[in-house]
Amino acid sequence: MKKLLLLFFVTLVSVTTEAQIFTQVIDEQELQFKVKLIDEFFRRFNYETDYKGEPIVEQPDSIPIDTVVKRKNLMTLLNLDTFMDAHKEMDSISTEFLDYVIRNDKKIHYADTTWYAEAVSSAIMDGKSYPIKIFLHTEQIKDVIYKWVITDVESSLFSNLVDSVDLKISIMPGAHGSSFITLPETINLNAKSVRSLFSKNYKPCVLTVFDYLISKGKLKMQNITKVIYHFQLDAYEFTVERFEKEKSYNKGWLISKIVKQNK
Amino acid sequence: MKKVFMILLLISTSLGCFSQKTNDLSQEELEAFKVQCQERIDAFQMGLEIIADKRQDAEIKDHYIKTIPEMFMGNGEPWTDNNGGKHDAVKMQVSSLSNGKITTSNIPLKQYLNRLRNLPYTNVEIKKAKTCLISNLYKVSDNLYMGTCTFFQYFTGQSGEVLVYRDYTQKDVDVYIQRIEDGSLGTYWDMKFGDINVSETKRMPE
Q: What is the pLDDT of residues A126-171, one digit of tens each?
């Protein structure tokens, strides 16, 4: 007990002493404004919380929240370096997008099937490092339980899979006559172009190759270096990326690109 | 007819809301976890400050190096979740900035704590901003939920009287909440941390 008390006392003294010599000025408001997590992006986009994280509650006897306030809130989610010019004017695509979201009270949710993540990483194979992108969607397991699933991978590692076929290589039209006796030889001799022997309808499945290489231990994943989120909101597609800036309140997870599909 | 339509509308709206939910916890439980998480982050932070502080007694540092891993899944050792999924020992991502280039590496928590104690500075301070954010909670399985807590650390390293390194980092830590059913204690909630990711590193003027 004595030891515990002593520990507590020493800890307290230490914390107090440190507080006195610590000179770092922390701008808490800058940290509050920053869109720190993608979940916070969702909350602020849906106008559920303000930049301080406080819930926004509409008073039942008051008029609906002013669209001007909503617009200001949504503007904090745009990378202003991309969408605002030197005269502080927003460009046409972002203005149109914000109008659409506000007018139609559009919201985004984790459970939606209209968004996905792109995780940028690298992988090592045969001692060489390759950049690799992994695309992930949320998938419902049951009730409120979801998980992230890999839906696609993209890397220069797999580029030879989609190269054009070598027309010089083929299985002879009369090969069946000798019960395909030369087939093993044809495959083995053309090991690097074996896809040239496949049907013209063949479409390589990169995920299957990824599965094979990883499960055989031939390919080793490295750290994730960047994540980009892609959203589809009716005719609009937008991406959200992390931006870090010096002395700015406009940072964190922000909309980096908006594209309107012409339907 | 109008009444039936209204009821149908209400049902469909409530089902719609349910389908967007990622957990089945009550608002009271969520609020309680939020408070508990912030308290635990503060306790973790205090432990780090003490381990890094060159003026602290070795015995006290030993105590925190021993007890901090207890706040983490697997107590800092490889662990298995209640779905049977296997995980490496929790990792602490560390970063440093030199010539404008950020380098990050993942090191096991226990190794990190010992490294923190032996940093080659004569004085070290690690401070945390008040701003702290907790993500949504996601139900992983019947008795397990997870989320992320974000906080900001300010690091200062001093050699003699000279400040030689100062940075600010955003740290995102996985948070796991498990419902434990114990024969003698009954049912209770247990909160543990998981891997810690550094999502931003910024060099501060010395």
A: 999 999 999 999 999 999 999 999 999 999 988 776 666 677 889 9
Contacts of A37 in chain B (CB under 8 A): 133, 135, 148, 150, 172
Smallest CA–CA distance from A7 into chain B, residue: B60
pTM: 0.86
| Mean pLDDT computed over every residue of chain B | 87
The answer, for B148 touching chain A at a CB cutoff of 8 Å, is yes
- The domain limits of chain A are 28-106+234-260, 115-163+197-226
Give which of B30, B138, B142, B165 to mutate to test A binding, by max A Cβ within 10 Å: B138
* ipTM confidence score: 0.86
Q: With an 8 Å Cβ cutoff, is B22 touching chain A? A: yes
Q: Give residue A125's identity as a one-letter amino acid code.
A: M
Q: What digits encode the pLDDT tens for the residues B122-143?
A: 989 999 999 999 999 999 998 9
H helix count then E strand count, chain B? 4, 9
Instruction: Detail the DSSP E strand segments found in B109-185.
Output: 123-134, 138-141, 144-159, 162-182
**Chain B residues in contact with A13 (beta carbon < 8 A):** none
pLDDT in tens, B131-181: 999 999 999 998 999 999 999 999 999 988 888 888 889 999 999 999 988
Residue B71 C-alpha, separation from nearest chain A C-alpha, in angstroms: 18
- List B residues 40-59 in contact with A (Cβ-Cβ < 8 A): 46, 49-50, 53, 55-57
B101 touches chain A (CB under 8 A): no
Question: Across the interface, which of B50, B129, B148 has its CB nearest the CB of A37?
Answer: B148
**Within chain A, where are the H helices?**
2-21, 28-33, 38-45, 67-75, 80-83, 92-103, 183-189, 206-215
Picking from B71, B193, B64, the residue whose alpha carbon sits closest to that of residue B134 is: B193
Rounded to whole angstroms, the Cα distance separating A113 from A109 reads 9
Q: Which residues does chain B have within 8 Å of residue A145's beta carbon, measured at their own beta carbons?
A: 139-141
Query: How do A226-233 and A115-125 pair as beta strands?
Result: antiparallel
CA B74 to chain centre: 14
Would an 8 Å CB–CB cutoff place B39 in contact with chain A?
A: no
Closest residue by Cα to residue A79 from A26, A29, A34: A34
Name the residue among B3, B4, B25 with its Cα closest to residue B178: B25
Q: Which top CATH class is B25-203?
A: alpha beta
Q: Do A144 and B57 touch (CB under 8 A)?
A: no
Cα–Cα distance, B162 to B164 (Å, whole number): 6
